[in-house]
From TrEMBL:
One of its GO terms (molecular function) is sarcosine oxidase activity. It comes from Streptomyces klenkii. Pfam families: SoxD. This is Sarcosine oxidase subunit delta. InterPro entries: SoxD (IPR006279), SoxD_sf (IPR038561). Gene3D superfamilies: Folate-binding superfamily. It comes from the Bacteria. GO terms for biological process: tetrahydrofolate metabolic process.
Length: 31
């Protein structure tokens, strides 16, 4: 388990963060 430091919440589990996808692909505002 990796803890990622958050300046507001303190150490957060890596499971709360996820891959957002590719930057050049347009995604719908409301899927």
């Amino acid at each position: 388990m990796l803890l990622i430091p958050c300046p507001w919440c303190g150490p957060r589990d890596e499971a709360e963060f996820h891959y957002g996808g590719q930057a050049h692909v347009a995604y719908p505002e409301d899927p």
